[in-house]
Probable phosphoglycerate mutase GpmB (Buttiauxella noackiae ATCC 51607), 215 residues
Amino acid sequence: MLQVYLVRHGETQWNAQRRIQGQSDSALTEKGERQAEQVAERVKTLGITHVIASDLGRTRRTAEIIARACGVDVTLDARLRELDMGVLERRNLDTLSEEEEGWRRQLVNGTADGRIPDGESMLEMSERMHAALNACLDLPAGSRPLLVSHGMALGCLVSTILGLPAWAERRLRLRNCSISRVDHQQSPWLASGWVVETAGDISHLDAPALDELQR
Ligand SMILES: O=C(O)[C@H](O)COP(=O)(O)O
């Protein structure tokens, strides 16, 4: 049975400032670096064979810290990027107009084709996230990959594995440096294919962490 670990990157400067990142980027804070070290300490004895990360800076840095502890290299995969937030990227959450906040809310309020102007839909992101996850099935037998990605992207992936639509309302918090695990299995008692073993585990962190909505 293939087990895949899913890690959201460490806290960044813009997470802490409540600024929308999307496919823009900001560096990890000192806290974010420490969170990544705590993930590394937690997973270094799990037999991780591959660390595969979104190619944005915050995920690359998190992946480098984890990969070093696991004794493997980092592989980049742009399909693991955060949702493209279009015209709202770089904006502070507290400065959004009612209309702009409406664009953001329609991503996760049951609107199938919701998107921020010039941005990506949740369905489009879901398709590329599932493609990146399914690519793990082509790794050599016995592989145990760890993917480093983002809050909206991983929340959408886990939710859709559970059968919710990509644009479903949020019912899962994925805090900075949380660890989730999904398994690909064929069991008579579970749906065939991907199942969720763990979601949003932060028991390895020594301090409260922000969720993907910077709450
Ligand atoms: O700010 C964003 O784009 C998201 O809400 C969180 O993205 P992140 O997981 O890349 O910080």
Q: What stands out?
A: Residues 5 and 84 are 23 Å apart (CA to CA). The chain has six helices and six strands.
